[in-house]
User: Fold this.
Amino acid sequence: MEIKRSQSDHSQNPRNKNSRNPTKRRKISEGFDHSNVEVCGKEDGFLGSYYEGKVVGKVGRNKIMVEYKTLVSEDDEQLPLSEAVEVSDVRPVPPVVPVSGFEVLEKVDAFDNDGWWVGRISGRCEDGRRYFVYFESSGDEIAYPVHRIRVHQEWEDEQWLVV
Assistant:
């Protein structure tokens, strides 16, 4: 996988391009077979979050079965949640981008409530080990230790872009 810095406008969701191209959608579905992936949350309150899982099979032409790493079944909380999801809502797990720290207003993902949420660095805590992340979708600002923050990346044209 290649990581590039984006020079383009990312106001549109890059996964939407894949949903309009059935050939590309089929290719991605085959490429995810038994892979570790992230699934985009689409439900109210979870929009734009990503949850780690593993592809365990195909369901029809445009869906795959994913078993989540951090989400559990409502029927039995000892079992991981499995569900069929649209291929257009799935991406590979992004590579780790090593950083020594973050800058104010830098776009990041913070791990919270079992998934990765997009936000912006709004400051650094006095202890120097945590950063405040502001979430535009909710208006919340929460302090996270560095190990629960990663550089935000977009999956576009089968490569990762740091935006």
Remarks:
- The chain has a mean pLDDT of 83.
